[in-house]
Amino acid sequence: MRNTTKIAAAVLATGALTLGLSACGADKSDTKAKASDPLVVAATPVPHAEILNYIKDHLAKKAGLNLEVKEFTDYVQPNNATEDGSVDANYFQTVPYLNDFNKKNGTHLASVAVVHLEPLGLYSKKFKKLDELKKGGTIALPNDADNESRALRFLASTGVIGLKKGSEATATPQDIAKNPKGLQFKEVEAAQTPRSLQDVDGAVINGNYAIGAGLKPAKDALALEQTKGNAYNNVLAVKKGNENDPRVKKLAKLLTSPEVKKFIEDKYKGSVLPSF
């Protein structure tokens, strides 16, 4: 009976120790970041990382912000990294894409600052004008739902195709109602659309990937998305609950500063447009 009591006591002591260690771990994970801690931001290379690196090199120190930029070349990993805490924030996406990503992946991301617009464009290595597209030609589209529907709405705005009424918000190639040139559509990952230009007659390319591939949207696009009333502004995003992180607030302020506005206008010359 005495041995049983000793064993029970030992088990209780071990359990208490485990709970204590767990509590200590929880306290550590819940500790709020200090203002001096690095703010790690995920971004696609162009123009997002370029804009962030401009801030890092010219504005962050004076603002008391320790900024680290982590580059990604796709649209999935930055959100996953923000959700799991591998990074503190990200800057690469539009609000419609963010909302769609949350819905499909059960993530909890929120926009904290609207920064710029990258007009979507139709590009070709074979033609120089929109009306030169040949019948039966193939057009590459981004394959994620948000960018694909955006690309199709853009093409419809040019008159190249027409969409079924009411399908615009979630349009897919199956929603094309008018296709006078009998165009075919090839769905590829958004980051691969510039590379696909070698194999197709044209490609609808997101502005950041176009610039990253050496294209000049304001000059090279057969047609360019209009900025007026456009919902596809690019935003700084965090996991919900981190909107009031002082470091995030500092970055949001810098991203919408006169200095960054001038940097965007001077560097991208109309291919990227400040939205503030």
UniProtKB/TrEMBL annotation:
<keyword id="KW-0449">Lipoprotein</keyword>
<dbReference type="Pfam" id="PF03180">
    <property type="entry name" value="Lipoprotein_9"/>
</dbReference>
<keyword id="KW-0732">Signal</keyword>
<dbReference type="GO" id="GO:0016020">
    <property type="term" value="C:membrane"/>
</dbReference>
<feature type="signal peptide">
    <location>
        <begin position="1"/>
        <end position="25"/>
    </location>
</feature>
<protein>
    <recommendedName>
        <fullName>Lipoprotein</fullName>
    </recommendedName>
</protein>
<dbReference type="InterPro" id="IPR004872">
    <property type="entry name" value="Lipoprotein_NlpA"/>
</dbReference>
<keyword id="KW-0472">Membrane</keyword>
<feature type="lipid moiety-binding region" description="S-diacylglycerol cysteine">
    <location>
        <position position="24"/>
    </location>
</feature>
<keyword id="KW-0564">Palmitate</keyword>
<comment type="similarity">
    <text>Belongs to the nlpA lipoprotein family.</text>
</comment>
